[in-house]
Structure formats: structure tokens, C-alpha cells
From TrEMBL:
Annotated Gene3D superfamilies: 3.40.50.360
Record's keyword annotation contains Plastid: no
Protein name: FMN reductase
InterPro entries membership: CE1759_FMN_reduct, Flavoprotein-like_sf, FMN_Rdtase-like_dom, NAD(P)H-dep_FMN_reductase
Domain annotation NADPH-dependent FMN reductase-like: ranges: 6-155
Lineage: Bacteria, Bacillati, Actinomycetota, Actinomycetes, Pseudonocardiales
UniProt keyword annotation of ATP-binding present: no
Length: 205
């Protein structure tokens, strides 16, 4: 089997959070779908709440510290991305937007992405279409046709609503797996690729 890497970005603020729960379910379904397509998957999760101060520092200094740089490299170097945010005031969270503001605008070009969102009420479900899709279109990613929204009532055990959520998760995961499996595996990042040339260091650049 070939191996693909999945980066999972969760912007949940609480522990535990419904955002992370949805991210985990999308990830498990995608791993299963990739296995059905003859590919193993390695998964790396980026919890944005752990990088809130790092992101604020980056906004004012223009530099990512080691922890944030590792998170950015995880996302940009993966074969596929699962991105899940809570919805506040009918849009993605500020933490979610700040992270993708920090990502280089060309670093995600062509990357397969599965979008997910959570909120207390289904009234926020259209945020996936009017907020998240335009953001990832700007970043020139390839977004899976099915995006998954989960409201509080979607987590009910054993009822029809919960079964509908499961079906949406499986459909979206299959779409992402198709996109990822069709692409060649991402090359390992060169840790010295962005190093400043020695001549520039001598000039004090």
C-alpha cells in the first residue's frame, strides 16, 4: 500500500469540544476510505487552541515561533487536509481565520480539503458555503463537494438525525479519499529550503 498524510486542523476552544469530535469522525472515515482505495494514512492533528498566543505573536512580529512553524509545516506538507471550525456569528472563528491568514497564500494550491463546522443550531449551516468555501477557493485548494455541518441536535444517539450525520461524514470522507488517492504523495519538506544564503548573512541581510 502507498501511504498518504492527512493534516487535521481543529479550531475548537473547549476540551472536549464538538469541533474536535467532528474532526475525529471525519478523520476516521477518511482513513477507512483511503484504505479501501489501497492507501494507508498517517494523521497529524493541529489543535489551534494550543497556538492562540503563537498566532497573536505572529501577527505583530511577522515571525512564526518553532511550535507554530511545525503546525504550518504539518498542514502545508500533507497530502490532504481536514479543516473544522466552530461557527460564531454566522462565520468561522477568529482563531481559524487567523491560522489560515498566516499560511502562505500559495502553500495550499491544489491541496484536497474536506471542510467541517459545528454550531449550537442548524441556522449556521450555510456558513460552510458563504464563508469557508470562499476562503479555501482564495487559497486555491480543491475542496470536496460535500462539506459537513453538525449542530447540537446532530449528536443524538441512534436517531434518524444522527444516522444522517454519519451518512454525510462517510460521503465527504469518500470524496476526500478519492481526491487524495489521485495525487502523488507529497515529498518530504526540506528543512533547509528556506534557510538564508551564507552570503546574505555575511552582508547582514
Amino acid at each position: 500500500m502507498s501511504t498518504r498524510t492527512l493534516a487535521v486542523v481543529s479550531a475548537g476552544l473547549s476540551v472536549p469540544s464538538s469541533t474536535r469530535l467532528l474532526a475525529d469522525r471525519l478523520t476516521a472515515a477518511t482513513v477507512d476510505a483511503l484504505r479501501e482505495r489501497g492507501a494507508d494514512a498517517t494523521v497529524e492533528v493541529v489543535e489551534l487552541r494550543e497556538h492562540a498566543r503563537d498566532l497573536a505573536d505572529n501577527l505583530v512580529t511577522g515571525f512564526a515561533n518553532t511550535s507554530l512553524r511545525e503546525a504550518l509545516d504539518t498542514v502545508t506538507g500533507a497530502d490532504g487536509l481536514i479543516a473544522v471550525t466552530p461557527i460564531f456569528s454566522a462565520s468561522y472563528s477568529g482563531l481559524f481565520k487567523t491560522f489560515f491568514d498566516v499560511v502562505d497564500k500559495d502553500a495550499l494550491t491544489g491541496k484536497p480539503v474536506l471542510l467541517g463546522a459545528t454550531a449550537g443550531t442548524a441556522r449556521h449551516s450555510l456558513a460552510l458555503e458563504h464563508a469557508l468555501r470562499p476562503l479555501f477557493a482564495y487559497l486555491r485548494t480543491v475542496v470536496a463537494p460535500t462539506a459537513v455541518f453538525a449542530a447540537a441536535e446532530d449528536w443524538g444517539a441512534g436517531d434518524a438525525t444522527n444516522r444522517d450525520l454519519v451518512r454525510r461524514i462517510e460521503r465527504a470522507a469518500g470524496e476526500l479519499a478519492d481526491l487524495v488517492a489521485q495525487r502523488p504523495a507529497a515529498a518530504a519538506a526540506d528543512p533547509f529550503a528556506s534557510a538564508m544564503p551564507f552570503e546574505a548573512l555575511l552582508r547582514g541581510a
